[in-house]
Design a protein that fits this description.
The chain has a single domain, classed as Porin (Beta Barrel), CATH 2.40.160.10. The protein contains 2 helices and 19 strands.
């Protein structure tokens, strides 16, 4: 009997263990430089500094792994840490893997994953906004949630079929660590006995990508709960969202087009905050943007964008323009020079630089920013 059991175990290892091929990849980005920002802070003065949050891209390192389970299935995971090169400290509220921490199953039917991960707001805009999480450009310069659209306790699905991508996420409580899940949201842990909707979040995605163009739409809704807030990043006080009936919802429609060495993109992001309290009026904002990237040579890239935000309820508006030039020293290393200008309306205090705190201008004051930087990927 013992010999038969050993033989069976050996046969199982031969027939099934052969599929258990796994790989783990270490990757990362280091991006920093020096920036000058005008009209910064209440003293309306210049600030010269090394940014702490982002340059052309946020600095990070991570581990990405996969294991072939056979039958077209694989186990996959990602652990990703965000940090700043200026001082070596950790971003995302000090979380070890604050950018991503999830595990899941991959098959021809898509990927089902569990943990801290991006919502569909991120996957909807990633191709239409050419500047992305840049320090001076990108929708994230006006709505800081977009490049930080992650949630804890999340089940996610995403699959692509003949160019059509569908996806969705559901979070049982978007900030289980209580350190601030994304800028301006406050804290909202969720999983409160007797209050199923508190701190819940869900998002959906539908997009189509062809060889030369693509379009996308998404919806992202966050429910209120203890400690939750909605910040429009315009100088107005954050709106408390402490009731599970309160909602902070974002809808996106966008697209991109490739013509030779040129890629252009644009879209609309509408945000609506609704509260159950009659003392807190609903607030709605709209962001419109147009961006482009052009490869002058294989090593020289020029990109830029124009962004316009309108918040009628809080009487704030702003227009942001950005231009960036990048020179690729190699496949992994690049240097860049970029600049942006922000026009604020009379009551608005939007901030041009996303490189750290302390640079918010006075109401109605515009800002100019210039940065020279270096980026290395591994």
């Amino acid at each position: 009997m013992k010999q038969r059991m050993l033989a069976a175990a050996g046969a199982f290892a031969l027939c099934c263990g052969a599929h258990a091929q796994s790989s783990v990849t270490l990757y990362g980005i280091l991006d920093t430089g020096i920036e000058l920002v005008t009209h910064a802070g209440p003293t309306d003065d210049k600030v010269l500094r090394m940014p702490g949050i982002t340059g052309s891209l946020p600095s990070r390192w991570g581990l990405r792994g996969t294991e072939d389970l056979g039958g077209g299935y694989s186990a996959v995971f990602t652990l990703e840490n965000g940090f700043n090169v200026r001082s070596g400290d950790i971003n995302q509220g000090g979380r070890l893997f604050g950018r991503q921490a999830w595990v899941g199953l991959l098959s021809r039917y898509g990927t089902l994953s569990f943990g801290r991960q991006y919502t569909m707001s991120y996957w909807a805009i990633v191709d239409a906004d050419q500047l992305g999480p840049d320090i001076y450009g990108g929708v994230g310069s006006i709505d800081a949630y977009i490049p930080n659209s992650r949630s804890d306790n999340t089940i996610a699905y995403k699959g692509t079929f003949s160019g059509v991508t569908i996806g969705g996420t559901y979070s049982f409580g978007r900030d289980s660590a209580g350190t601030g899940n994304s800028p301006g949201q406050g804290t909202c842990a969720g999983s409160i006995p007797g209050n199923f909707n508190a701190c819940r979040q869900w998002s959906v995605l539908l997009r189509y990508d062809a060889s030369a163009f693509g379009v996308a739409a998404s919806y992202d809704e966050q429910r209120g709960g203890p400690g939750a807030a909605a910040n429009f990043f315009n100088g107005a006080a954050p709106i408390a969202l402490t009731n599970s009936g309160d909602k902070d919802a974002r809808t996106q429609l966008n697209g991109y087009l490739k013509v030779g060495q040129l890629k252009v993109g644009g879209g609309w992001l509408g945000r609506r905050v609704q509260t159950v309290s009659p003392a807190l009026p609903d607030v709605h904002s709209d962001i419109f943007y147009f961006t482009g990237t052009y490869y002058v040579t294989p090593a020289v890239i020029v990109d830029g964008g124009v962004y316009r935000t309108i918040d009628t309820a809080q009487d704030t508006r702003a227009t942001l323009t950005a231009l960036r030039g990048t020179y690729l020293l190699s496949k992994r290393t690049a240097v860049y020079l970029q600049s942006g200008y922000l026009f604020n309306s009379a009551k608005a205090r939007y901030t041009l630089s996303q490189g750290g705190s302390g640079a918010t201008p006075n109401a109605g004051v515009g800002q100019l920013g210039v940065m020279a930087g270096i980026r290395h990927a591994f």
